[in-house]
Every structure is written in structure tokens, then in C-alpha cells.
Write a structure and sequence with these properties.
Blueprint: E1 2-4, E2 7-20, E3 23-32, E4 40-45, H1 55-63, E5 67-72, H2 96-109, E6 114-120, H3 122-134, E7 139-145, H4 160-172, H5 185-190, H6 214-229, E8 237-242, H7 252-257, H8 264-270, E9 278-283, H9 295-312, E10 334-337
Parallel strand pairs: 4-5, 4-6, 6-7, 7-8, 8-9, 9-10
Antiparallel strand pairs: 1-2, 2-3, 3-5
Keywords: Hydrolase
Pfam families: Hydrolase_4 (PF12146)
Protein name: Alpha/beta hydrolase
Amino acid sequence: MQADILGPDFRVETFSLPPDSEGSVVATLVTLAPARPNGRAVLHVHGFADYFFHAEQARWWAERGYTFYALDLRKYGRSLREHQTPNYVADLHEYYGEIDLAWWRITERDGHDEVVASGHSTGGLTMALWADERRPAGLVALVLNAPWFDMHGPAWLRSPAARLAIERIGSSRPLQEIPRKVSGVYGRSLHRDHGGEWDYDLSWKPIESRPVHVGWLRAIRRGHTRLHAGLGVRCPVLVLSSARSFFGDVDGEAAATHDIVLDVEQIRRWASSVGPHVTSIAIEGAIHDVLLSRPPVRAAAYDVIGRWLDAWVASPAPVGSGQEDHQGAHADDGDHHA
């Protein structure tokens, strides 16, 4: 491993995966080690047209003793190569290759017996599906940040006719682009060069997002169908979302206080489909990526995560402290606001 672009305390490793129709494929694992490890780890997966740049998120976990790992999936961010169609897969199962390898490195190579899985947006859908199918030993919790659980927009987009069209075109012309308008408001609200707070590589996370291909959307819709039928993730699950979405004429304040990417009502509707033990929390004033919201809002979100972990996941003492593990008081399931 070598130093990552996020700084010398972050380490990065790239591993090769079986080639696909476009050629060679790699994925990238970024790691931040805690000063006082508690023996646990986190594995995080980003969303669409995204990559891992959330150093604050990694440090929040590391301060609590978790070794933090984040995947840049194939054809995203650090893993994107010139010969590849950015962000494209024909089946969400393709991502299981790098998730499985990362899991092996975290548990077998690095010796972590208990791991929290984490995912944002499309990564939230992927990690829920992966956790349900793989059900790995050592998965103690699943934290989903605004997971993409359904197709938002007009009802006809969720109709049987639309689903059939996506299936047929996705099979015959998978790389056909779907026309869409992207205002760029969300991207500009994030990046510091456009009035936001965050600094990241715009060639990896463009302001205007990325093209959407029919084959990729078919993979997403198949994932939605599996989720809606009901998954059986056994560990406690936390689903975070903004309290509100906004899809009208977006101004600066709306973009800074609402989810303008996904419908949060859909997120909360389908949250209970992940498993039998789900807590859904709506964060007032949050944006789509809840942990990139304004400082007071994301502080509230981190407080929610911390209290939920204390309630549902035993809190081990730092390695070498000589203290016993303890189990926090239980929290309630269901929808809550913070």
C-alpha cells in the first residue's frame, strides 16, 4: 500500500479483477487506521458518478477505533481507466467481485472479526443486496446513507411498460444513453469552487454527473425489484435520509437543505424491505449525501449514527485497554426525525 491522495495517513491499494468486454478492470481500496483500534472495521461504497473523498467521514469512524476502508468500485474514481465507459456495469452482481475481495482483505488478511458495511445512494442499494446474498460472518451492522431504493419521478417510469422497455433496450442496446437534463445544481452546491464546502476531483465526480446507459439502468431496476420483494439482512440496519426532497425550481437554499436527487419518501417506504431490524432516521436540513450537509446538520447525523451504534452494536474497548466490551441500551425501530 502507498499514500493516498487524501493524505499520508490514508493508504491505498489497487487490485486487478477479471477483464470484461472493455478490457482490464481494477478496483481500489482506501484505508485509514485508527490510533486506538477497537478490532472493528468499516467497509464503505460510494454512489453513482462519485468516488471516495470523504476524509471527515473516515476520521469520524477512526476516532471511535474503527479501521475505515472505502472502495472505489470498478470504472469509478481511482479505478477508472481510459478504455472504460465510466460507471457502467450491466449487472450489480459485477460489483460483488471487488466487495468480496475487500471483505477478504479486511477480515482474513487484516484480521477484523466484526465489520460495519456502509453505502451511499446507488452504493446503498448495492451493499444491501450484497449483504443479503452473501450474509458474511462478522457483518455486525449496515449503515445506508440515502440509499437508492426506487425510481423517482413520474409514476409511468415505474410502470410495467417502462420496465419492459428498459429490459428490452437494455438487452439489445445496453450502452445506449438515456436523454436527461442535469442542472448541475447539486454538484455546484458541494464543490468549493462553486460555493460549496468540499474539494474533490471534478474529472472523477463531474458537476453535471455522468451519462446514464440503458443497460446500467436495467441493472438498477432489477436490484430494485429484488429489494421490493424483501431482503433478509440479519444485522441491524440504519437508513439515513434528508427530511425532505425538492424537485421544483431549485435555488441555493433548497439545494442546501433538501435531497434534490432522490425521493426521500421512497427511501423511507422501502427501508423496511432490507431486513427485520431497520431503523430509519430523517435528518432535518440534510442534502442527498447526508454526511456532506452543512456542519450542524452532519453533526446531528453523526450523533444519530453514534447513538444507534451504542444501542445496537456492542461497543468494544480500544485494543490493549484492558476493559470489557459492553452492550448499549436498546433503541426503537421505525421512522424518526433528528
